[in-house]
Amino acid sequence: MALPEWDGELTSVRYDRGTGAWFVIGVHSTRLGPASGGTRAMVYPSPDDAVADARRLAGAMTLKMAVAGLPMGGGKSVIALPAPRAELDDATWRRILEIHAANLELLGGNYTTGPDVGTCSADMDVLAGLTPHVFGRSVAAGGPGSSGPMTALGVFAAIRAGVAEAGFDGVDGLRVLVQGLGAVGADVARLAADAGAKLIVTDVDPARCAAAADELGAEVVDTGAVTTRECDVLVPCATGGLITAEVAATVPAAVVAGAANNLLADPYAAEVLRRRGIVHAPDFVANAGGAIHLVGREVLGWSADAVADRTRAIGDTLTGVFADARTHGTSTVTAAQDLAARTLTGEH
Ligand code: HCI
């Protein structure tokens, strides 16, 4: 395997012959506290891709925690599955969680996991029976439950801040295109519809689109149209990598603000968006509501109301990031990275 340079602290990689799964944990930084970030379980083209994804996602978690003011470092787990999760039998999935829990135990609390793409609160309940280094158990099991609603609330605050920065007078009447109607995207769509947006939606699952059309009056478009359909606000809530430099140069939106981690396929895309005057809410700022929920409830002892208040404050953080970017003539990603760096180096 090629070993490109990485600025993180540790990567653990394990292959299990019995299940055919690869287990990767990227511990990017423990500078502000124990590393933390979810467990992503999906099929990858190769184990190298899984390692690269875990490292990139772990790095984003470090920035997310720093900007959100949470006393945690950044990490992420990736389980590269031998087949899509829906095709795995229960015993195989259980065995996969057992091996993951054993890896978490080996890291001894320097990394705590939680749910991410491909895992849910019920999986955290299983892990929590095997290791204490788990956030996000179900409410029934004594945990704080899904982080989806708080992630969505924070993304909606980011949309509002982005819309204001772009010179619009609120979300009412704007064309808001939501890509991905999973736990987060479906909630964001609901919040946008309640605020009077003209909703446009797309998802790989036609049933989810039909539900959004029914319940929210959304217009449904083809998944392929997401970067070419004209809209005011593009809200990516599927997996990352949507915005390549080429897409950044052509996407017909005024604001880009969503939940997907690692939205930019190419860091240069942020600069392309800036030059086109497109307001871009960096993913690691906009989608921090989930981390605020888990760390707020489980580490800091915050009430649900306090978590919601801190999550809504993502809008104010972004307003500051947009102003910094304008002042210094940088992309919003650079401005948000600088904000994180000031916390990480102890400068305020
Ligand atoms: C994320 O924001 O991508 C994951 C949130 C999270 C935060 C802390 C532990 C697990 C997951």
UniProtKB/TrEMBL annotation:
Residues of the Glutamate/phenylalanine/leucine/valine/L-tryptophan dehydrogenase C-terminal domain: 146-346
InterPro entries recorded: Aminoacid_DH-like_N_sf, Glu/Leu/Phe/Val/Trp_DH, Glu/Leu/Phe/Val/Trp_DH_C, Glu/Leu/Phe/Val/Trp_DH_dimer, Glu/Phe/Leu/Val/Trp_DH_bac/arc, NAD(P)-bd_dom_sf
Keyword entries, A-Z: NAD, Oxidoreductase
SMART domains: ELFV_dehydrog
Protein name (database record): Glu/Leu/Phe/Val dehydrogenase dimerization domain-containing protein
Similarity remark: Belongs to the Glu/Leu/Phe/Val dehydrogenases family.
Pfam families with a match to the protein in the record: ELFV_dehydrog (PF00208), ELFV_dehydrog_N (PF02812)
Transmembrane region(s): none
